Amino acid sequence: MKLPKKVLIAGKYWKVRTDKTTNGGSFRGDLAEMTIGTQYPQDVLETFLHEVIEATLMERHCRFYLYSAEGNESYRFFFNHEEFDHVVRDLSVTLQNLMGGKK
Questions:
Q1: Given Cys at both, which of 35, 45, 54, 63 links 17, Cβ 3.0 to 4.6 Å?
Q2: What is the DSSP string of 1-67?
Q3: Is residue 96 helix, strand or coil?
């Protein structure tokens, strides 16, 4: 799957980098960039969507870091249904932008 070089997340453009040597993904909110591992092509779309949704939740202040845990277990997501609606709206704008449509 060919990924875009940038993606609109919660009103901000993020740089998308790929890494052929790894699988999985990560992002840096302070730099507005994400890295998607493309070692296993069958996982790329799921990984990309995972990072886009997680970055959207972070931008909306629904993702928090817990100092008492390690790795991915150190992050928690907290949001109500209204905040979830905003995340879905942000994701729909992201997907429409990627598909060439306008919202």
A1: 35
A2: -PPPSEEEETTEEEEEEEETT--SEEEETTTTEEEEE-SSGGGHHHHHHHHHHHHHHHHTT-EEE-T
A3: helix
φ, ψ dihedrals at 98, nearest 5°: -65, -30
pTM (whole model) above 0.90: no
Q: Is the model's pLDDT at 103 over the cut of 60?
A: no
Report how far residue 29's alpha carbon sits from residue 68's, in angstroms, rounded to the nearest whole number.
Answer: 21
First to last CA, the chain: 24
Give the residue carrying structure tokens 């890494």. Answer: 19
Q: Closest Cα to residue 1, out of 28, 40, 56, 53?
A: 40
Strand partners, 33: 15, 28
